[in-house]
Specification:
This protein has 265 residues and is an alpha+beta fold. Helix content is 25%, strand content 24%. The protein has one domain: Endonuclease/exonuclease/phosphatase (Deoxyribonuclease I, Chain A). The protein has seven helices and twelve strands. The chain starts with a strand and ends with a strand. It is an enzyme of class 3 (hydrolase).
Length: 265
């Protein structure tokens, strides 16, 4: 069995003080992918920088206090990689991957964007560069007899079922037609599979992010923007996929919840 979890920690130093350390100690995951770490490795406490029993790859952003991704693996990776060959984005703390026997696991933090600003332009540039890399990654992995799973905060809700208030967000970044069409290309053209949606084809959600504003969490007015996107062969071996939603608002250590998939290898 291979259990993979992804979670945007919304600042790892803050999350460590709110319950992440305890969650990591109790998880059964073999690989944990983090996004929005927002810290250099030397700024992290020992129990999250290099916890006992884990091999950790940190990919901080050169811009202080922004982005950052990490991959925790119980098994030492055969190979690691930071970035995907982009002159603009490889030092931005947005992508890291590890190779384990038979499978490549990656942590992705796609830019969030904001309509009408440079942040949205940055998001589009990232998407334009990243899709060809996803295609190459899957092709090279297939040639080697390997599977792929790209985990992370994709910052796009693909379908109406992926966010509670979709009608009110049709002109919001994260649910724009061009963003949804791009994610559709990841599935339809690049040939990847949305593992959680494949396991829950007919339900709304399960949501993985809720605003801290108002009572979004209590009302489950969320977005599903955290995905495990895999090669078809690996998706076919998924036995379950679920969101680890906190029992209450007070018990949250991030505005995102961990999303986990279990594969039978």
């Amino acid at each position: 069995m291979l259990t993979v979890t992804t979670v945007n920690v919304n600042g790892l130093r803050a999350a460590a003080k709110k319950g992440f350390v305890e969650w990591l100690a109790g998880t059964s995951a073999d690989v944990v992918c983090l996004q929005e770490v927002r810290a250099e490795p030397h700024q992290l406490p020992d129990e999250v920088r290099a916890p006992e029993g884990w091999h950790v790859l940190h990919a901080p952003a050169t811009a202080k206090g922004r982005a950052g991704v990490s991959v925790y693996s119980r098994r030492e990776p055969d190979r690691t990689r930071i970035g995907f060959g982009s002159e603009e984005f490889d030092a931005s703390g947005r992508y890291a991957e590890i190779e384990l026997p038979g499978v490549t696991v990656a942590s992705l933090y796609l830019p969030s964007g904001e309509v009408g600003t440079e942040r949205q332009d940055e998001k589009i540039r990232f998407m334009d560069e990243f899709l060809p890399y996803l295609e190459r990654l899957r092709a090279s992995a297939a040639a080697d007899g390997r599977e792929v799973v790209v985990c992370g905060d994709w910052n796009i809700a693909h379908r109406e079922a992926d966010l509670k208030n979709w009608k009110a967000n049709r002109t919001s970044s994260g649910f724009l037609p061009e963003e949804r069409a791009w994610l559709g290309r990841v599935f339809d053209e690049a040939g990847y599979v949305d593992v959680v949606r494949a396991q829950h084809p007919d339900q709304d959600g399960p949501y993985s992010w809720w605003s801290y504003r108002g009572r979004a969490f209590d009302n489950d007015a969320g977005w599903r923007i955290d995905y495990l996107v895999s090669s078809p062969g690996l998706a076919d071996r998924a036995v379950k996929a679920y969101v680890e939603r906190a029992a209450s608002h007070a018990e949250r250590w991030s505005d995102h919840a961990p999303v986990t998939a279990v594969f039978e290898l």
